[in-house]
Amino acid sequence: MQRGGEKPPARPGDGESGEEALPSAARALEALLPPLRFAVKDGFAGAERLLALAATVRGAVERARAFGAPDSEALRRLVAEAEAFDASPKAERRRALARMAARLGALIPLPAELREAARAARLEAEPSSPSPVRGNRTGERAMAREGLARKEPHTSAERKERRLMLRRTLAELSFPHPAPRALLEERGRGTVEAALEFWPKAYQDRSRVRAVGELEMGEEATVLGRVLAVRRQRMRNGRPILKVTLADAVAEGAKGRLELTFFNPPSWRFKGLVGGDSLLASGKVTEGYGGRRQMSQPEVEKVAPGDSANFGRIVPFYPGPSDYQHPALRKLMKRLCDEFAPLAPDELPEEIRARRGLIGRGRALREVHFPPPGTDPVRASARASPAFRRLVFEELFFLQLVLARRRRGVRAEPGIAFDASPAALSRAVARLPFALTGAQRRVLGEIARDMARPEPMNRLLQGDVGSGKTAVAFAAAMLAVGSGFQAAVMVPTEILAEQHARTLSSWLGGSGVEVARVLAVGRGKEQREARARVADGRARIAVGTHALLVEEVAFEKLGLVVVDEQHRFGVLQRARLMAKGRRPDVLVMTATPIPRTLALAFYGDLDHSKIDEMPPGRTPVLTHLFGDSQRRAAYDEVRRELDRGHQAYVVYPLVEESEKTDLADATSGAAELSRTFPNRAVGLLHGRMTTEEKREVMDRFRGGQVQILVATTVIEVGVDVPNASVMVVEHAERFGLSQLHQLRGRVGRGSAKSRCLLIAHFRRAGDEAKERLKAMEATEDGFELARADLRIRGPGELVGTRQSGQRLFEVADLYRDEAILEEAREEAQALIEADPDLARPEHEAAREALEERWADRLSLARVG
Ligand code: ADP
Ligand code: MG
């Protein structure tokens, strides 16, 4: 979807700085007009029903001040007058209201009915009153006098104040209706800003209001009519039905009739409608009894003067709330949009906004909920409106800004120039027991070029499970060692550390280069000894887990840091390991296939290499899905493999390594398997075993003494036993897609045809889980799976934010918004090049935004 080039439609009166001209202190005060108009309606009938006016007025006045209105006497009087109104007995409210209107009229232009009311107050002659109200003109002059119409000034302090306003809770504001507020609070959107960022999922065009007579059968329409009759009936089961007959407001006759039907309506609905009301209704026109036209469960609203949130415009629909909750929700949103959205400071540098044709933030926040006339509702629903474009751009821009800054910081420092000559390279590669694949050779060339240069390498090596990243890392480590430096290889699990140490040692056989395993702090003599050998340089390569990061681990001369399966580590951990050397080169490796958009978004500060070819002799892994009740059939397949002399994994999920029930699952599973396969040896492997216990079980499995290895997900990454040709995954519905792909990569490493058998409890599985499992069955291609994952769940899982449970992006969708991402990236890089510290005044707002609004969220992006 190409959204990149779209320019927002021009709007009349919306010049270059359209955003700045609209919101003003006056606009904040205009929010007081609807309640006052309501109050004076029908001969001041509404005055008695108006509650807590002072709170509303105080809010509006505060906002006006935030827009730069001086703390004037006139504003204070306005508040005092509202307080007086609240305190008045009903009979005197009319007069209080009139004074209130007069005060307001001194500040902003009033509509006719309020001018009328204000005149009444003036006639009562209040000599002290400073406000000779004579309609619009006077109001405007007064506004200018009070400085209310001042253009948005935008100093840092003012922006801060506005941000605070937007962080207000909805509870602090006074809303007539508690339901929509509760609805937002339930969704964690209890502040003004969070509510404004509750994005609509779709829109409906109700800007064209039609007459009853025009309606066609089968169409979705919004119609304006007059209530002819209201009937209350009962269905056969006793439930109430409300039937409302609508006639054309002007034309008479049978053609102009429409029947509205409400099943089981809430009680207020009965009271609300009476004959003669003008009513707007929106819904689908269907054929009712006797060919009559009807609408079933339409949305309706009595026609009130002013600006409806629900009719006569393009209206939003939000994800979650039901249709009948929407009218009140939209009213609340409308208020937030009118009163608060214009307060949102615009933090994008003006120049970028202009160059990329982006509308201002305040306008975007408003129009994302209530698109202006002429917006295509279908495009808006696909988030291709100018409002969405602006918001998406902003989100991606600030992420790219963080990455660009980080990248620059790294580039600026001098690093090590290793000897990566062709001779050194071939010496390293000669130690491998196989010839490198073309892809391995290519990426090794890229790495060698980086290592030869004095800037620190900062490279991401991507390669699907089993593509042979270890061999590449080994060769890189040998270049470092050959130049007199040490290399550190960090991996997420002890089992993997053991295995890497073993593999590297075997490739090093006879070279005299020593590999140390750094596994856990303070675990006896062996670990102390390993640390000592790393510290004094006897060991040239250290392979380890997080244990490498602790203070007690020091290097004699660390030159290369390799982080394997990097999605398990955060950026801070990478930094901590780097700090143990003097600007070492860094190679991070991942098997998690990252689509280009994601790589750009999250690893923008790394260079990329990709192994896109498998070593020869790989066999495809067939994947089958079994229901819980089909376990027997799955185990029959396992038996066949064992009979051929192969080995099997049986994997149980483990949400947390300490979770007891999961452990119990694996333990009882192992016992069960021993009974099912009485003449096979079954081993058990889980995260709570000691290093020695784990090592022993793995050794026995690798050696073939154990044929079935029951394991929790500790084997998820990197374990390499080529004779294992079948894997059973229990509770497959509980695994993520990338995790399943990693697991499946444990088989298919030898020449034997391999199988992956997924056993799922479908009844408990959600739709998402089913989609995941189907995708697993359908393809072996890690890249395709990553795309599927992105589609099914969004990017959180891929980049390792799963523990946080938060979504990284509020509005951007890396699938859809690739073009915008590219633009945001270009702009962010150019900005950082021109002004690395964002020190120029025109970038001050962007710097604040980075620190105040984005820092927390972006720390979730675990880069490298
Ligand atoms: P991963 O990229 O998942 O870390 P590994 O480095 O563990 O993959 O490699 C998987 C297996 O493939 C290992 O057994 C490794 O020895 C083997 N291998 C790697 N490169 C080659 C190659 N060029 N030719 C043959 N086998 C290879
Ligand atoms: Mg690996």
- Main pleated sheet: 7 strands, parallel
Spatial separation of the terminal alpha carbons? 29 Å
Report the count of strand segments: 22
- How many helices? 32
Oligomer: single chain
Indicate the low-confidence ranges by residue numbers: 1-23, 125-153, 655-659, 796-806, 860-864
Beta-strand percentage range: 15-25%
Helix coverage percent of residues?
Answer: 40-55%
Neighbour order of strands in the largest sheet: 12-13-11-14-15-10-16
What is the C-alpha radius of gyration, as a whole number of Å? 34 Å
Ligand names: adenosine-5'-diphosphate, magnesium ion
Structural class: alpha/beta
Q: Report the average pLDDT across residues.
A: 81
Tell me the overall shape. Answer: elongated
Structure, explained:
This protein is an alpha/beta fold. The strands form 4 sheets. It has a 7-stranded parallel beta sheet, sandwiched between helices. Residues 1-23, 125-153, 655-659, 796-806 and 860-864 have low confidence and may be disordered.
List keywords for this structure.
864 residues; alpha/beta; binds adenosine-5'-diphosphate; binds magnesium ion; 15% strand; disordered C terminus
